[in-house]
Amino acid sequence: MNPTIMKFGGTSVEDANAFRNVAAIVKDAVPLRPVVVVSAIGGFTNALLASVQKAIGGDARAATRSLDHDLKRHVAIARELLNAESCAAFELTVAVTRREIRQLHKIIAMHPVTQPPLQDEIVAYGEQLSAQLLAAVLRESNLTARYVDARRCLRTNDNYGSAVPLPETTPATRAELMPLLESSRIPVLGGFIGSTDKGVTTTLGRGGSDYSAAIVGAALEAREIQIWTDVSGVLTADPRMVRKARTIPVLSYQEAAELAYFGAKVLHPKTIQPAIDCRIPVRVCNSRAAGEPGTLIVAESEAAPQTVKAIAHKNGITTVQVTSARMLGAYGFLRALFEVFDRHRTAVDVVTTSEVSVSLSIDNASALPELIPDLEQLGAVEVEEHRTIISIVGEGLRNTPGIAARVFSEISDINVSMISVGASSVNLTFMVEESRATEAIKRLHYVCFEAPASGSRTELATEEVTA
Ligand code: ADP
Ligand code: ASP
Ligand code: MG
Questions:
Q1: Can you give the pLDDT at residue 423?
Q2: Contact 348, 367 (CB under 8 A)
Q3: Strand 4-8 relative to strand 417-421: parallel, antiparallel, unpaired?
Q4: Residue 333 pLDDT class (50, 70, 90 cuts)
Q5: Where are the beta strands (DSSP E) in 240-350?
Q6: Integer Cα distance of 11 and 32 in angstroms
Q7: Is the CB of residue 10 below 6 angstroms from any atom belonging to ligand 2?
Q8: How far is CA 202 from CA 25, 88, 151, in A?
Q9: Mutate which of 39, 52, 120, 127 to test ligand 2's pocket (most atoms within 8 Å of Cβ)?
């Protein structure tokens, strides 16, 4: 049988109880030949990144000290769950880790220019520690778990902070993990981290452990990639915003990808591609309620095609509008425009155009001060900050006439801009002011999923709703 990848996020390993749950879930899955991928314990990646900023500020001692609380959390978990001998071994690992991080903080404090690779080196300790701890906890439950350094599997370029996996990853991962699987061992590796061909540590970008799981899954031709998190699958909206959001039983790859691109944090946006490439089902489940059905993500033909599935959103968006009469009937304008974004390494999410103007949305506006003068060579530039992209996603949008009219009539008192129907036609995307986003999403969620006679219908209801 092909293996099953089981990825546990930071909230699934935040304390001893969470580790116990994970051990029970993995134990039940032994016949499925699990490969375990784990994130740093909840909150630790943030703390590691903040420590780097302290070191850049010059105070290496304070930088290292700021990590003591989280290092102690690891030790407390080990003391609660491990026998004396493995606990002592793990405590030694934590002490060595602290010393190594201390050295790195000192180097950064003296030479802040060394920060990008050293930041990845420091942040990667989060996943290394959690994976070593989890492997020990699994062994304590009589499972034949073996810690694997994920940097030996995930080979990447040297784009520190958001490194791109290279094709060598597949043979490297197979070489590391297949012998373990063949001898009935359970490999446990940290997500999010990799290394360059020179052996320098890299990371894949925030939330990247999901992506690691998918890459490992593709390399091993896994039977299934399971993403275990703190909610019961992919929900109809962000549960932090919409209390009544509910689990979507089945999604197509395309739908899941669109939801992830447009802000559903439960899946890293790059997770779905390796699964599509190898046609591996992805399952999203709740590590705190393992019995609850989660979400299964499969090829389009197998997913319920006729419905609107969910509403995703992304705050903190900036829109840029470039208006120029030179665009009228001319060619080469769009190329010149996109070259500016290319030059300043700024990704564009949504684009809408008219005869004389182009609007673009970006979620990383850090290069804007340099971008704008270049854009002004092309036309008049208008920038709007604090926008939210709202995206309604579902294969049902493909063939449901009138859906856009109903969506916009529901929020007709809210100013909407940059309306676009994704090229794949499984999303309807638009921009609102951030201050009105919650209200808009709650109202749309109500008509799509809560109002009487909504639910799995293709059409949206048009009842009056109060947010
Ligand atoms: P993990 O630590 O397991 O990787 P994340 O915090 O990255 O977990 O992702 C899970 C969180 O994503 C949920 O707790 C939820 O708040 C948020 N989220 C946002 N949109 C959605 C959605 N549509 N469905 C489920 N969760 C969502
Ligand atoms: N620990 C990393 C982060 O917090 C990766 C992950 O959790 O997926 O971003
Ligand atoms: Mg995550």
A1: 66
A2: no
A3: unpaired
A4: confident
A5: 250-252, 282-286, 295-298, 310-323
A6: 24
A7: yes
A8: 29, 29, 8
A9: 39
Q: Among 349, 13, 73, which residue's Cα sits nearest to residue 209?
A: 13
Instruction: Tell me which ligand sits closest to the C-alpha of residue 230.
Output: 1
pLDDT single digits (tens) 105-134: 999 999 988 889 999 999 999 999 999 999
Hey, which of 6, 7, 238 would you mutate to test ligand 1's pocket, going by the most ligand atoms within 8 Å of its Cβ? 238
Distance between CA atoms of residues 350 and 137, nearest Å: 45
β-pairing verdict for 417-421 and 380-393: unpaired
CA of 213 to the centre of ligand 2 (A): 12
Ligand nearest to the CA of 39: 2
Q: What pLDDT is recorded for position 305? A: 62
Rounded to 10 degrees, the C-alpha dihedral 26/32/37/43 comes to -40
The predicted model gives 379-402 an average pLDDT of: 90
Ligand nearest to the CA of 208: 2
Of 45, 228, 266, which is best to mutate to test ligand 2, by the most ligand atoms within 8 angstroms of its C-beta?
45
Task: Evaluate: CB of 190 within 6 angstroms of ligand 2.
Answer: no
Pick from 410, 209, 206, 412: which is nearest to 311 by CA?
A: 410
**Does 9 contact ligand 1 (Cβ within 6 A)?**
yes
Helix (H) or strand (E) holding 432: strand 427-433
325-349 average pLDDT score:
88
Extended beta strands in 12-129, E state = 34-38
Q: Across all residues in the chain, what is the average pLDDT?
A: 93
Q: Closest Cα to atom 5, ligand 2: which residue?
A: 207
Whether ligand 1 lies within 6 angstroms of the CB of 265 is answered as: yes
Determine the angle formed by the axes of helices 68-81 and 84-110, rounding to 10 degrees.
170
pLDDT at site 460:
44
Distance of CA 293 to the CA centre of its chain: 21
User: What confidence category does residue 457 fall into, taking pLDDT thresholds of 50, 70 and 90?
Assistant: very low
Question: Quick check: pTM over 0.85?
Answer: yes
Instruction: Give the number of the ligand closest to the Cα of residue 205.
Output: 2
Closest atom, ligand 1, to C-alpha of 9? 3
- Residue minimizing CA distance to atom 8 of ligand 2: 207
Q: Identify the three-state secondary structure at position 391.
A: strand
- Other C-beta atoms lying within 10 Å of the C-beta of residue 198: 6
